[in-house]
Amino acid sequence: MATTKTDPKLALAANGGKKNKVYEGLTREQLIQAYRIMYTSRRIDDREILLKRQQKIFFQMSGAGHEAIGVAAGLALKPGYDWFYPYYRDRALCLALGAKPYDMFLQGVGAADDPSSGGRQMPSHWSYPRLNVVTQSSPTGSQILQAIGCAEAGRYFARRPQAAEVPVFPPESPLLAKDARPFDSAQGKNGAPASSIDYRQFHHVTFQGDEVTYVSLGDGTSSEGEFWEAMNAAALGKLPVIFCVEDNGYAISVPVEVQTAGGSISRLVSGFPNFHFEEVDGTDPGVSYAAFVRAARYCREGHGPAFIHAHVIRPYSHSLSDDERLYRPDSERERDAARDPVTRTQMFLLREGILDDKGINQLEKEVEAELQTAVDLALEALPAPPESVLKFVYSPDIDPTSSAFDTQPAAAPEPAVDGKKPAAKTMADLINSTLRDEMKRDERIVIFGEDVADVSREEYLKRKLVKGKGGVFKLTFGLQNEYGSDRVFNSPLAEAAIVGRATGMATRGLKPVVEIQFFDYIWPAMMQIRDELSVIRWRSNNGFSCPVVIRVAIGGYLTGGAIYHSQCGESVFTHIPGLRVVFPSNALDAAGLLRTAIRCDDPVLFLEHKRLYREAFGRAAYPGPEYMIPFGKAKVVQPGTDLTVITYGAVVPRALQAAQKLEREQGLKVELIDLRSLNPFDWETIAASVGKTNRALVAYEDTLSWGYGAEIAARIADQLFDRLDAPVRRVAAKDCFVPYQPILEDAILPQPSDLFLAMKELAEY
Ligand SMILES: Cc1ncc(C[n+]2csc(CCOP(=O)(O)OP(=O)(O)O)c2C)c(N)n1
Ligand SMILES: [Mg+2]
Known about the structure:
Number of strands: 20
Structural class: alpha/beta
Radius of gyration: 29 Å
Low-confidence stretches: 1-17, 181-194
Largest sheet: 7 strands, mixed
Shape: elongated
Bound molecules: thiamine diphosphate, magnesium ion
């Protein structure tokens, strides 16, 4: 740990103006370049403000006051080599890395050619794949955990470079979506033909042994929980991440002393181990640059992360929608203005004799001319055609509903010599064996989450002192032992961090298969799932993607699980564009769908019903290492003629029980459909069945109202109205929580008797 404090008064002290003089590591030429970038950045803000007032652009967010720290970071780090998770004030950083003013104006007008998002995101939401500037969003702080994952991925590939290689795939695979353009398969250097195409073909990995990841945030954003989760993860992993807090003293109208206990984020974080700390005057490009150089060196040498607390100013209001005069008196604003980085740097260049009046004027004229041309061109740029807006919600390259994912289970093994059949495997067994097989096949798979490792204290495993845990439900048992602690490891108890880190890793080409221990505790990760994981491909116009698999233990019928170990809630997630959601009801489906989830190119929420993990229902023989089921294909559990029941998960065996009773007692035949995959779902199978039986019941374990069944029922009512002989019915949990007492739990969750009654009534309607 090291701390360097810079007295702001010493900033860029006048040094006599000698020709070969170096200022805080910057040559005179570099200082001129820094000033040019800072001035350009400020003038882009001014032009955008004007354009917004003329209603030629639709939003404006300025980087004013943050130019010096941004340019310093951009000059000290390497575009296309290091990785960048900036925030909206980092205009000068992006310019210093190589983004063009024209690029920024294109985003302002929302042009099709906007390289950050193709008109999908507000201005100042940077994304430049060629520079390793990763797409950013609007939620404050959600980028920070992804930066951690990005750094972890870089280190993983540096340690296991062979994992970065792309296997040789068959040239014409039906797995590919139309128009897909995989990387040249000649890139697969290991020579082993892969058994089928998978996401790796579309995730070309680059990494550098000494790369660093930059992430920035405002002072207010340091109050977000995700910031602290990220600091902890960076310190634990000694990761090469530079955190830059750009402290302008305000979060919209909330001043720093109300935001941060004691008023100083530096003081609060000073106890984190393994960090290099800097606190600088971020309006001074020289001292800021020197701080970044020291921080980058510390990170590149592998000592750990760095933290730069940069004091900056915010000379314009928070955004064009804000008027800071409502909460900041003139006196305070004037005090800030005296530290304006653009005018200070200009004065410094003049004082040092680096540029004279004429030189400054010339430089500024050149910048103005460049901006004028860029604005003129951008105003002529066309928006993307409206019909293109649905592009890139999902991977354009791999279609997980393709029939090529429809493979048969391997032949069941022969009975043993004693004539006994091999024991059928549970869902837990087959999820475990699928993970094991896929990890063998694909070295980019990493597994982490709470308690998923066999044992964090490796020496206990090595010395065979303990057997290992492998998850609270033991689904990942033995994987760390087999594949090593860098591929299967325990995370801190922090769900946002699990998903956020996985997202950053997947952006770099890893395939994280992470576990959320209980669905009931997925909520801290909701921001990462809803606003990051699912939307990264779309918002970056396919510039970045992050096909993570999140395995989640879900559901009730546990007799004692109570409120916080029994929740469902899948419709909250099927409501999210960009996210695939699957929910198997038996061992074989779990194996086939999990393999598809891992090999496909989209983020997948893989819901595993706890009650089904070791149930006698739905056990199966091991289907081999290539068994897959396409998404969006339902299974007809039993054919019937009198009534269609559409369901999934733990309601499948309960509905089957009810249907069998109905047939026994009334001679009525239910067609029972197990959806298996909830988004996408198999409308064709539902429509064909309801078209035949003319009666539909949707059954699900989640609470009745606003649930998954509402969408199915609405679709049937909408599109099959004239085929119906009865109203569409639903059976689901009561609109309440799941209680602890088993008798009360039974009263809440749908039981076979409820299903039987509803089926009977509907069939007789
Ligand atoms: C999670 C979240 N909450 C609230 C907002 C609305 N918001 C946008 S910027 C901002 C203030 C951020 O302040 P700070 O982190 O200090 O950055 P600054 O704008 O001062 O550079 C807020 C509250 C948001 N974008 N995201
Ligand atoms: Mg601020």
